[in-house]
Amino acid sequence: RVTSRKGVVGKPRIRYTGYVGIQSIANLPRLMNAQEFADFKCVRMRTSPTQDCSTVLTPTEQTALEAGVNTDWLRIGTRTGNQQSHDLSFSGGTDDTRYYVGGSLLRVNGVALNDQFDRATVRVNLDQKLKSWLSVGTSTQGVRSNRDGMPVSFGGAFSSNPLISPYDAEGNELLVPWPEDPITNNVLENL
To answer: Alpha-carbon distance 156 to 177, whole Å?
Structure first.
């Protein structure tokens, strides 16, 4: 849609448009659960057909498997997202003066936890005819955008080990949830 966003001669006009919607993840692949992951790792990592699975799994993985840990990283790192947009404008004018004042608000909470975006825009257009041969005007716009937080990493969620818990026994988030692999960060670390 193309609009000039200028006032027109006539009575003042007020216009509002808006929408509200939801966002959801579509077509997610089925990821392995903890037992399937342990079985897969035991088959792929053993060095001989008679090697016991307990020597292939790390102590943290073995303890988690025995305790029934089954972390669904995608489930805990995502949500149903939502978005809303609101636009309001006033316009009008006379033969000598035309005006347009408008503003818009956009708020998006994405499907990844902590993924949020807010934007507010204000626009003022004013045209004034001073003489038959002289007109002055302004088109002024201001924008404020805010993208707070760091969303959960989808790549990390897809590749994270389901035998690892993001939380300790007290429910506190672990920065390094897998002690035997200290370069593996917690997918939720940015929350």
So the answer is: 13
How far is it, in rounded angstroms, from Cα 165 to Cα 68? 11
Place of tokens 């809303």: 84
DSSP annotation of 159: H
**Whole-Å CA distances, 159 to 52, 101, 153, 155, 163:** 25, 49, 10, 6, 12
Residue 190 confidence (pLDDT) above 80: no
Per-residue CA distances from 171 to 144, 166, 174 (Å): 36, 9, 9
End-to-end CA distance of the chain: 38
Q: Which residues face 140 on adjacent strands? A: 124
| Residue 91 near residue 6 (C-beta atoms within 8 A) | yes
| More confident position, 106 or 48 | 106
Question: Could you read off the pLDDT of 29-76 as tens digits, one per residue?
Answer: 889 999 999 999 998 888 887 888 888 899 999 999 999 999 998 888
**Pick from 82, 98, 78: nearest CA to 90:** 98
Phi, psi of 63 (to 5 degrees): -60, -45
Q: Indicate whether 83 pLDDT > 90.
A: yes
Q: Which two tokens stand for residue 157?
A: 């969620």
